[in-house]
Design brief:
By secondary structure, the chain is α/β, with parallel strands linked by helices. The chain has helices at about 15-25, 40-50, 75-85, 125-135, 140-145, 150-170, 190-195, 200-205, and strands at about 10, 30-35, 60-65, 85-90, 105, 135-140, 175.
Length: about 210
């Protein structure tokens, strides 16, 4: 999934792809992956192919975004998933971890409520085993942490737990801004510094970006 020497951000655009590209290049990324919902993916993929031809030495690609609310409909997306070079799922559903066509799951820390006896970070040993078996990586969203407001301490605590679980059970870890606007993007070194501060090991941090 990762390209040698690459340092790509991941974003969820809304018709502002060129602004994202300009910001990504200014911040020092080697490329950017734009995520699109199933209903718009094929049309946007064609657009991104045209945009990518305009840039030399900078990778621009489209990925398929599947929300956890659609996990029960994964069968209907499998043909589209096979067409996509990169498939990301957002949010929690145990069904997502069983789907071999998914490359990365992010937004696990957005669980609304912790359980009475333990923190509900969206991951556990069973899900980590499934992720490793199906070659699914876990993504940590910088924008989710930055924009958490009053829940920031809670989201960070969940991210710490998920990083610990991934490292313990050998699940691939990546980080990105997952920004919805160019202003939400951050320098890759800032993202790396945050990941190190909340418990990511140096070895994982060396291969932090896609």
């Amino acid at each position: 999934m990762r390209f040698q020497g690459s340092m790509r951000d991941i974003a969820v655009p809304n018709g502002n792809e060129n602004d994202f590209i300009a910001e990504a290049r200014a911040l020092g990324y080697s490329g950017i992956i734009f995520l699109y919902q199933p209903k718009e993916f094929e049309e946007k993929s064609r657009l991104i192919s045209e945009i990518a031809n305009l840039y030399q030495g900078f990778s621009v690609s489209a990925g398929l975004l599947i929300d956890s609310t659609k996990a029960k409909s994964l069968v209907s997306y499998r043909q589209l998933m096979r067409k996509a070079g990169f498939v990301a799922a957002r949010g929690f559903s145990s069904q997502l971890f069983e789907e071999k066509g998914i490359n990365l799951i992010f937004g696990l820390e957005e669980q609304k409520k912790d359980f009475s006896t333990f923190r509900n970070s969206g991951l556990n040993q069973v899900l980590c085993s499934l992720a490793r078996k199906n070659h699914i990586a876990v993504g940590i969203s910088f924008s989710e942490i930055a924009d958490a407001g009053s829940r920031q301490t809670e989201i960070i605590a969940r991210a710490i737990q998920n990083i610990m679980l991934c490292q313990k059970y050998g699940v691939a870890l990546y980080a990105a801004s997952f920004a919805k606007s160019p202003e939400m993007m951050r320098n890759p070194m800032d993202i790396k510094s945050l990941m190190l501060a909340i418990g990511m090991g140096q070895q994982n941090a060396t291969h932090l970006f896609l």
